Amino acid sequence: MIKILVVDDEPQIARALRINLTAHGYEVATAPDGAQALRAAAALVPDLVVLDLGLPDMDGTEVIAGLRGWTSAPILVLSGRAASAEKIAALDAGADDYVTKPFDIGELLARVRAATRRGNAGGDSPATEIGSATVDLAARTVKRDGAEVRLTKTEWQLLEVLLRNPGKLVGQRELLHRVWGPNYDRETNYLRQYMAQLRRKLEADPARPVHLLTEPGMGYRFKP
């Protein structure tokens, strides 16, 4: 059975979607805000997320970013925001489709069918093992030998890029752009500093890393 997570803080809409989707054979879970959505997604590992952008605790684009840290499941935005800029921002963040409220349930069901046909997250997992450390990108937690490890926002951003590209070389410039922004091209000392911090927190022997690797003069690689 295809699993769908509905994220909407309007109880009437969440209930209507749950009833209609369940009637069409989907397994449905709901969440009223972004934090609960990310926790539910980690537990459920949904095949599709139907997401409102106007959540009480965070913007929907932040939820998209959190999900895209570990899952390729289609994300269908269902929002009252009709401006083109809002749609572009959501799609650029990683959403796959955008439906404006008020919506026709028949059209929405058709979009759901199309999204689930394109693929689902059946093989995705929010947890990644780095030696004795377990990184959960969805819940934004790291545990090493049973103890919680705290990462800074920048450390999370850098680690997330590497974990989303296992085995692949990620160039210095790409990392700088994705973590610090498009105006950063040559600040490779930032990368050295933060990679050293991540290794101290995650690698068994930071001086001889086996997972967070440097390709001299080129970039960095996460080796599972």
Describe the 3D structure.
This protein folds into 2 domains: 3-118, 3-Layer(aba) Sandwich (Rossmann fold), CATH 3.40.50.2300; 127-222, Arc Repressor Mutant, subunit A, CATH 1.10.10.10. By secondary structure, the chain is α/β, with parallel strands linked by helices. The chain is 41% helix and 22% strand. It is built from 8 helices and 12 strands. It is elongated and about 55 Å long.
Give the topology, please:
Blueprint: E1 3-7, H1 11-23, E2 27-31, H2 34-44, E3 48-51, H3 60-68, E4 75-79, H4 84-93, E5 97-100, H5 105-118, E6 127-130, E7 133-136, E8 141-144, E9 147-149, H6 153-163, E10 169-171, H7 172-179, H8 188-202, E11 212-215, E12 219-222
Domain Response regulatory: 3-116
Domain OmpR/PhoB-type: 125-224
Modified residues (4-aspartylphosphate): 52
Question: Care to give the gist of this entry?
Answer:
The chain is α/β, with parallel strands linked by helices and 224 residues long. Helix content is 41%, strand content 22%.
Give the percentage of residues in beta strands: 15-25%
The largest β sheet comes out as: 5 strands, parallel
CATH superfamily name of the largest domain?
Answer: Response regulator
Q: Over the alpha carbons, how many angstroms does the gyration radius reach?
A: 19 Å
Number of strands: 12
* The top level CATH class name of the largest domain: Alpha Beta
Tell me the number of helical segments per DSSP (H or I, 4 or more residues long). 8
Question: What key attributes describe this structure?
Answer:
8 helices, 12 strands, single chain, alpha/beta, Arc Repressor Mutant, subunit A
